[in-house]
Design a protein that fits this description.
This protein is an alpha/beta fold. About 50% of the residues lie in helices and about 15% in strands.
Length: about 250
């Protein structure tokens, strides 16, 4: 397929490279950061699009890989078209396209993307949604060309998936940051937790998080929990978070 890419950030770059590798052609690249968009266009062997109003009307798909809050403004700047146009956002409904774009859809890769950290796209689920079965089939084919798992979900289902993703990814990463800061204050290296972090993740996947849960809150060890709370006396926010998480773990029915 011939694709116009709007957005040259982390998601746009990795999607575009995976699509090119799968045999698709990125015909134009447009991005807010001119240097980054031009660099990506050279890497893909495509044209750098300076004016979004001059996008290729013969392309099969217009792919918006831009931040959620930028989508409405981008759509206002694109001329009305019957081309298939999709966004890659997890928390933006299909209805954002309105009547201006009758052939619209969603192509959402469920993963965290970071600069200079390549991902194996074949293992990343692609969640799709479209206004018609025909468009959905087209997105399904596109998704299967780069991923082993393509799933059709509604806008409502996708917002719940996005919420779950934020909790499991962003919140977990913040907890790891808090752990690293705690160790740093006491002159201990974060690397000592690496094996534990790996085992925690692998065990949650292998057994299910409910079965994998361990620790003082799980076994009702109030003496250990009180000792931890005493250690956190000078850090009221972390102390409150420890109590909140412990109560949550203890309240889960098994």
């Amino acid at each position: 397929m011939n694709i116009v890419l709007i957005g040259a950030g982390n998601v746009g770059q990795q999607l575009a490279l995976a699509l090119k590798k799968a045999g698709h052609r990125i015909v134009q690249v447009h991005g807010k950061g001119m240097h980054r968009a031009r660099s990506l266009a050279r890497k893909l062997g495509s044209n750098h699009l300076k004016d979004i109003r001059e996008l290729d009307t013969s392309a099969d798909i217009i792919l918006l890989a831009v931040p959620d809050d930028a989508i409405p403004a981008i759509l206002k700047s694109i001329p009305a078209t019957k081309q298939l146009i999709v966004h890659t956002a997890g928390n933006v409904p299909l209805s954002v396209f309105g009547r201006k774009f009758p052939n619209a859809g969603v192509f959402y890769p469920l993963q965290s993307f970071s600069t200079d950290r390549p991902l194996r796209m074949r293992h990343i689920p692609i969640l799709i949604e479209a206004r018609t079965p025909q468009l959905r089939r087209k997105l399904n084919l596109l998704g299967k060309s780069i991923s082993e798992e393509v799933v059709a979900v509604s806008s409502e289902q996708r917002q719940w998936l996005h919420l779950a993703a934020v909790i499991s990814n962003n919140f977990t990463n913040h907890l790891l940051y808090l752990s690293s800061s705690l160790l740093q204050r006491h002159r201990l290296p974060f690397r000592l937790l690496y094996p534990l972090i790996r085992e925690t993740t692998e065990k949650a996947i292998a057994l299910h998080p409910l079965a994998a849960q361990t620790g003082p809150a799980r076994r009702g060890d109030r003496k250990t929990m009180q000792k931890h709370l005493s250690l956190l006396a000078s850090d009221p926010r972390l102390r409150s978070l420890y109590r909140l998480m412990s109560n949550g773990i203890a309240a889960v029915k098994r």
